[in-house]
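Hypothesis: this fold can be encoded by more than one sequence.
Test: take the structure tokens below, design a sequence, compare later.
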């Protein structure tokens, strides 16, 4: 889950000599969409596999994508039957508030500091709106 400590877990796992994170270190999101069918995932499989080039040291790759728990788990089990999943859970209210604060810090959610017209609506002071739209 987002804002649940998955980055800290990935950092700890990357320190293990037998594990290696995908080289670019970014979330892959291959299995994130619960509506992706296996056929669509199979067509994109070569692009996914290229994110994990062969290693000479015998290390096992891992990747971190917070949305896999709600994604295509059946497809993941079929395409990577020996995969091990690590799941980080957090108290839902604290996690949601942490995500809200994260979006505020990044400017994606902002507080209206004074009332003003916005299109055909008036935003009142104290309203919270998405800042990316």
């Amino acid at each position: 889950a987002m804002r649940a400590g998955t980055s800290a877990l990935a950092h700890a796992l990357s320190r293990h000599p037998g594990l290696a994170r995908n080289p670019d270190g970014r979330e892959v999101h291959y299995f994130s969409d619960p509506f992706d069918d296996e056929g669509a995932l199979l067509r994109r499989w070569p692009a996914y596999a290229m994110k994990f080039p062969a290693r000479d040291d015998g290390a096992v790759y891992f990747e971190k994508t917070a949305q896999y728990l709600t994604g295509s788990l059946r497809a993941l089990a079929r395409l990577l039957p020996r995969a091990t999943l690590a799941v980080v859970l957090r108290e839902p209210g604290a996690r949601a508030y942490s995500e809200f604060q994260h979006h505020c810090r990044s400017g994606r959610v902002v507080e209206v500091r004074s009332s003003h017209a916005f299109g055909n609506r008036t935003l009142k002071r104290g309203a919270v709106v998405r800042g990316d739209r």
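The helical segments are 6-14, 38-49, 73-79, 92-106. The chain is about 30% helix and 15% strand.
Hypothesis status: open.
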